[in-house]
Amino acid sequence: MSNPGKRGTSLASALSKASRKPADAVEEIIPQAEPAPASPQKALKVISTYLTPEDHKRIRDLSYHSEISIQQLGLQAWNMLLESKGHAPLAPTTAARPSGRNRS
Known about the structure:
Helix content: 40-55%
Distance between the termini: 69 Å
Largest sheet: none
Oligomer: single chain
Strand content: under 5%
Shape: elongated
Mean pLDDT: 76
Number of helices: 4
């Protein structure tokens, strides 16, 4: 049932040819890539904090005027809490996304 106006291989024909190839031949055609090493960013976990609009504005203003990202302010706060309870500080990290603030 081929149509003279069509060009190329039909899906059924391509699948039929593909099913005849041994699996080893497919691996030779498509070499398996080495898995990429895990990014340190992917290993990070998110902690969300709900704030009132007024408190959010205060934190945002503090971040702007001190030129410290909200991420870094949060890390400082967690470290102060941990230290007050006799625990070791958090491991240093960087934000997964840049703040977008132009610091010129």
